[in-house]
Amino acid sequence: MTSTFPTTFINGYWNRKLPIGQRVLYSKRFKRRGKRAVVETLMDGAIHLKQIRPDESSRIVVLLDIPTHWSSEIIVFQSNDTFRDFMQNVDWVPIAKDDEQDTYLPTLPVDVELKRFTSTTCDEDGWSESEIRLLEI
Questions:
Q1: With the CA atoms of 34, 123, 81 and 113 taken in that order, what torsion angle do they form, in degrees rounded to the nearest 10?
Q2: What is the distance, to the nearest Å, from the Cα of residue 43 to the centroid of all Cα atoms in its chain?
């Protein structure tokens, strides 16, 4: 999933979506252990990218879509400026710690910062609200 560091950035970032089917993520059998495995896989990939990045100018994050994880992904921003612009242009509202929703998270390394948001989107099905966890690796 992340064996080499990306060299092609579109609009200043590169992303890799979760390599798992939506039906699996939405199934009742996909419990907390499965969600924890998803988070660990994304974190491992992001940590690997951080270790092999050619310089310190890029920014690597894991974006978790709660509770389904369907839109979860690793994002590599080409620079801190690109990351800052991204954060200023998203319509996310910070939220307080939610122990129930955070139980699937593994123990985070001390250098990983966890941020929590709500996101409201509109698509062909109407308006929906989801929770976002952003892990800055």
A1: -30
A2: 9
